[in-house]
Design a protein that fits this description.
Layout (H helix, E strand, L loop, with lengths): L12 H10 L5 H8 L3 H10 L6 H6 L4
Helix pairs in contact: 2-3
Length: about 60
Amino acid sequence: MAKKTLTKGLWTKEDLKVLKSMFANNPTADVAAKLGRPTEAVKKKASRMGLSKTKKYMKTLGRS
């Protein structure tokens, strides 16, 4: 299976929909892999959009 290349640049409406739906309850690395983007790019975009992890998700990481 060919490795998906990382996407740079513009975010499509579909990318933004996936980011919004997945970010709160999934590891950022998983979201980044799904979108084919670097983890740091996903973190920055989520921050700019005002997205954050849910308290429930953070508890699963041992953080409150």
